[in-house]
Amino acid sequence: MSMIAAFYSGKSILITGATGFMGKVLMEKLFRTSPDLKVIYILVRPKAGQTTQQRVFQILNSQLFQKVKEVCPNVHEKIRAIYADLNHNDFAISKEDMQELLSCTNIIFHCAATVRFDDHLRHAVQLNVTATQQLLLMASQMPKLEAFIHISTAFSNCNLKHIDEVIYPCPVEPKKIIDSMEWLDDAIIDEITPKLIGDRPNTYTYTKALGEMVVQQESGNLNIAIIRPSIVGATWQEPFPGWVDNLNGPSGLIIAAGKGFLRSIRATPMAVADLIPVDTVVNLTLAVGWYTAVHRPKSTLIYHCTSGNLNPCNWGKMGFQVLATFEKVPFERAFRRPNADFTTNLITSQYWNAVSHRAPAIIYDFYLRLTGRKPRMTKVMNRLLRTVSMLEYFVNRSWEWSTYNTEMLMSELSPEDQRVFNFDVRQLNWLEYIENYVLGVKKYLLKEDMAGIPEAKQHLKRLRNIHYLFNTALFLIAWRLLIARSQMARNVWFFIVSFCYKFLSYFRAPSTLKV
């Protein structure tokens, strides 16, 4: 029997970020492998006109939880949704709910965070730093707490090439940053943000590093561990391959390419795409929770959940596999620009890339105006290019993460636990995973009909031909303008034409002699 699954039986577990991508998969795995757990507390706030209970009902009735209902029919009774808002002090939790949490919680999984790369520093600090500090204060008042597991990111120290399983200090103390956010106005914060984040690319990675410092400084006597996953993608195996429900990471790029928004990205083909399946992260998280509570390490251990050092896959290989999957299963038609291959293109200049993407959008918006409809493609394309620009930092670099603690934990597991809570990425077949990822985006995220594949293939072929014609016409126009303005271009053109004529004449002459 699985020791890890048995450990969580009868436990009261608090999960922050339970309505997010990883939080949902974490809940599903807990209920499926430990159906006898006592209760899972989730912090939820009303959203989009839904009450907390309605949000929970929507999650449990999704396809993700189908298998759970077979092994745990009373799953609705085992989830306790507590109103909370991480933007407020004490999370705005009622006195009664707070008392229940403090007196009953055994395990905390802190998954909540803002993952927006372009988030304002004040908001990023509140969710990724201040909220972590407040949760640690709550945890210190929980007499039954056995382990506190903090989910960070492998990119919290992306300003370094080699990253060890240690906490790296930031130049400014987290407490000073938290205090300054309370009285500085937005204009001053915008001005000092580049200086504070330094050589990190965005506020997300910076505030996640600050969050780790807070965990280190305010852990007290708590049993704490930190998990650093890299780019979290669709499920690998559990509960079924390819499940995904958000646009973060590769998912947004896959949709943009599949729908025809995105033709190329400025990436280094040989750079390692350090993608990690979400179920792999969840399996490691649950194993870490068990190990931290049972073995009680003397210091805070950090676990890297990455793939690059054990089973690397580069962006070029990933791009070609995505393209190959598009050939098999094209996405449904949308009001998009022509679709074609999704490639990592290092040569394409930023100017040409922008023109190549925006020109069809402008033309299509002009068509929409002529037909009396609201133009929208240019706005969508500008937003997409902005997103791709923020990702360029990560698709043009490779990192090395040490994984000693992760490998140590794997060796501590029984064969049964290694099977049930598998986080060994060396077993991952990338070609199979990426294909399932693309199919999952189409099926679970876009909810497209898989029966319409033949028609979509024909549509894809037509769109490709249109795209090639457009690019050819654009090239000829640019070349004609260049010849008209440059004597050197005319000389080059004359040389090419003369060479081609002589080359053809050379082959025609022998054939004439034979006759």
From TrEMBL:
Major enzyme class: oxidoreductase
Swiss-Prot/TrEMBL catalytic activity: triacontanoyl-CoA + 2 NADPH + 2 H(+) = triacontan-1-ol + 2 NADP(+) + CoA; 22-methyltricosanoyl-CoA + 2 NADPH + 2 H(+) = 22-methyltricosan-1-ol + 2 NADP(+) + CoA; eicosanoyl-CoA + 2 NADPH + 2 H(+) = eicosan-1-ol + 2 NADP(+) + CoA; 24-methylpentacosanoyl-CoA + 2 NADPH + 2 H(+) = 24-methylpentacosan-1-ol + 2 NADP(+) + CoA
Domain of life of the organism encoding this protein: Eukaryota
KW Lipoprotein (keyword) present: no
Ranges annotated as spanning the membrane: 466-483, 492-509
Keyword annotations of the record: Lipid biosynthesis, Lipid metabolism, Membrane, NADP, Oxidoreductase, Peroxisome, Transmembrane, Transmembrane helix
GO biological process: long-chain fatty-acyl-CoA metabolic process; wax biosynthetic process
Any GO CC annotation of this UniProt entry: peroxisomal membrane
Topology versus the membrane: Single-pass membrane protein
Record has Lipid metabolism as a keyword: yes
EC number: 1.2.1.84
Occurrences of domain Fatty acyl-CoA reductase C-terminal (ranges): 357-448
Cellular location(s): Peroxisome membrane
CDD domains: FAR-N_SDR_e, FAR_C
Gene3D superfamilies hit by this protein: NAD(P)-binding Rossmann-like Domain
Gene Ontology molecular-function annotations: alcohol-forming long-chain fatty acyl-CoA reductase activity; alcohol-forming very long-chain fatty acyl-CoA reductase activity
Thioester reductase (TE) domain boundaries: 15-284
Short name of any one Pfam family annotated for the protein: Sterile
Chain's role: Catalyzes the reduction of fatty acyl-CoA to fatty alcohols.
Family membership noted in the UniProt record: Belongs to the fatty acyl-CoA reductase family.
Name the UniProt record assigns to this protein: Fatty acyl-CoA reductase
Organism expressing this protein natively: Gulo gulo (Wolverine)
